[in-house]
Amino acid sequence: MLKLNVNGQDREIDGVADDTPLLWVLRDELKLVGTKFGCGIAQCGACTVHLNGQPIRSCQMPASAVAGQKITTVEGLAKGEQLTALQQAWIEHDVAQCGYCQAGQLMSATALLAKNPNPTEAQINEFMAGNICRCGTYVRIKKAIKAAAAAGKGKA
Amino acid sequence: MNADMNLDTLVRDLVAGFEGEKAVAVSRRGFLKVGAGAAGGLVLALSAGLPSDAQAQAGPGGPPPIPFVPGAYVRIATDGKITLISKNPEIGQGIKTAFGVILAEELDAKWSDVTIVQADVNPAVYGTQFAGGSMSIPMAWDSLRNAGAGARAMLVAAAAKQWGVPESELTTSDSTVIHAASGKKASYGSLATAAAALPPPDVKSLKLKARKDYKLIGKRFTGADNDKLVQGKPLFALDVQIPGMKYAILEKCPSIGGKAKSFNVDEIKKLPGVLDAFIVEGTTPSKNVMQTAVLPGVAIIGKNTWAVFSARQKLKVEWDHSTASKDSWTDYVKQAKALSTKVQGDAVVKATGDVDKALAGGKTVEAFYQFAFVSHAQLEPQNTVAWYKGDSIELWAPTQLPNQAIVGGVVGLAADKVKLNQMRVGGGFGRRLLNDFVCEAAYLSKAINGPVKLVWTREDDMRHDSYRVGGFMAYKAGLDAQGKLAAFNAHMIGFKDTASGGTSTASGISANEFPVTYVNDYRASQSLMPLSMPVGPWRAPGSNTMAWVQQSFLGEVAAAAKKDHVEFLLELFGRKAGKGQDGADQMPGMPRQAGLNPDRAIGVIKMAAEKAGWGKPLPKGHALGLAFYFSHQGHVAEIAEVSVDKDKKVTVHKMTVAADVGPVVNLSGAENQCQGCVVDAIGTMGLEITMENGAAQQTNFDKYPLPRMPVSPEVNVHFVQSDFSPTGLGEPAFPPAVPAICNAIYAATGHRIRTLPITKEGFKIA
Ligand code: FES
Ligand code: FES
After folding, report:
1. Which residues of A touch B701 (CB under 8 A)?
2. Is residue B334 part of a domain?
3. What's the CATH code, domain A2-76?
4. In this structure, is residue B416 part of a structural domain?
5. B229 lines ligand 2 (CB under 6 A)
6. Alpha-carbon torsion B590, B596, B599, B603, what sign?
7. CA–CA gap between residue A24 and residue B304 (Å, rounded)
8. B612-631 per-position pLDDT tens digit
9. For residue B160, how many other CB atoms are within 10 A of its CB?
10. Domain range enclosing B181
């Protein structure tokens, strides 16, 4: 029996092999399919989730290794209907093309702003470099991060 | 400039794929129908039901006319909610939003009343539903405008009847019919029931808006699915889960064409979570490139994705390589270099004047270019959920070319027994015009007689891509005494399919290729080497590489002539100014393609030069490079601003894109496509797939480093808003980007990049 805490909820999962990456437990067992599979070797960032607030590549993390720790997925960003400033900026700046990478991009961006609410261009580039967007929406991802950072100014 | 011909194969196959599915002729039995709406209200159900101009132009052999079907494009509920239906696959090109904007514009709908939904896959209703060749917009422009305007006319007629006033006194705005004289207003929702009872209008009576009257077209709209996307809602085929579904992988021979002889079946079947494992014989490959067969291999079926992925790591297959490809990139490079010494290739594609004589005297410029194979690498790996039910099959697939006949053929079912659910596609780039993965899922579902999700790994994806074909070009150009281009000789060294002997997809040179007809003495010829690696359409097929060799070389010629590059191109296009568009390669069964128009070329070159500050002082170490290319009916000029450090690291600081694609539908989406094309181009300049013994050597992103955020430049996009028929933007902004950057590298360093990837010349994108 595997016990996970995902998006604030305790979940119990039966019958998955110990070495199963968190990605596939989230997707196949918990039906949280917002977290995506792109490469399986920690190169693309499509599978990014938060582990105790830190971004990790869930394709490389055995689920059994994070039992009991706090996991947040893209489904857990919004508070009910209330989207985060980043999610809103993503919509306002029409960031997505195919949209497949965007859950991972949002998870990385969320972790970035949590750590550094007002990042420079260079800091954004560096932090986001682990997330590939094959459609090349980087111009807009950057814009949306800056907009959300500006919107969050003055807040705690 | 007319490398679009390389889509020929696609289109021929596409039309062939729909043989036997030809819809009945247009029925005029009605234009509207009333039915129960989702919200319990009445639905004004309207279909285009009319062959568009584009379809009419296609003539015999063209796509079948679209019959009347209620509710095909527009549905209006009595509560005022408007549902618009997008018929083509959404692959990231933004078509779902753009189609909605076109319909809503002519309907005069309030945008906030509108929801856009994906159409069922149903060629009898929608004709060909595919995403390719940037053709969604040009093919649907007329029929969608008519559908919107037809619905509007019905609503106006209903209000006129209700108020006893002539229709000519009524106007519409924001989903409302207005009678200014009396101050009466009625919402579309309140008129829907009455409108639905009226006879349909004649398409000839519909008055479409002039560009100046557009309220929506040309503005910015955020993507129709963005709200769902940012919340991680299930939209993709990979997200589909159905009760009782099993999971599958299919391991195929790394060398293309090899067959599985045996494998460690007992060991695999004992692994945790594995339910079955067996050899797949595959199906006979069709000659038709788009009707891909199931390749032989070994399938593992399991209870979840990880069960089959981890079992695969223990899989030991003995392959029969006797039928496998032996293709080697190293060998091709050697052969091509030898062939390049010939001024004329094996086959002359086009010749005018006497190019040999013209090149014998005066100043000449010569160069040899080489470009690599590359992979599509769309981020969502191939996958499909298939559920074979004996007498029918249902599939959920991320395809660019949904086709029931192709899939049905694999499992012995007629097209009408195949239900295909079009899912949002996690990147296309041309790869998913092939339905191989859809066919595989269908095959495996039948084999296990139940629902299954087939998931390719990234390694599967890169080993079994239909790559962008590599190639080579040997050029020689002659200048006259004034330094003007006088003679042009192009010898393309490309590929032909080993089995069929036909030119490989997107290889070879077109008889319409620029600068034919712009110089008197011209010759295009080609020599083709046999190739058995699969190649296929890749974003702006043919154009994306032809633009690079040609526009780089013209940059070389301009430099040799000591001419300013902008002036050089303007002089060249100016030779035919005012003469209208050229002939273009026409695709059988498709709407007429517009050709290169020198005036539009001149327009975008001037616009790019002005916006990029051509000729103005630049920051120290920066240099500009220009390129123009015409493809997919789009005229696009781009100017790159780069700097290169002492370690040959290239930084692209800025790209200025000037495009004339007719009226732009969604400005936000259009800019996004151009920005994406530029990033894609920057990345692709540094990438290659090499093959040895018929197997790709790069199989994941560690060896195939896609561009990341730090290399993404500032991209400034400018559109010429013209009244020419619009075209799509998924492709035409890609081709000029690479040569613009290479021309800028030359301006910065004096070094001419003649090999792609640029790493082969010691350069690197920083
Ligand atoms: S799938 Fe985890 S990084 Fe690519
Ligand atoms: S939007 Fe398609 S991969 Fe990022």
Report:
1. 38-39, 41, 43-44, 132
2. no
3. 3.10.20.30
4. yes
5. no
6. positive
7. 8
8. 999 999 999 999 999 999 99
9. 18
10. 19-230
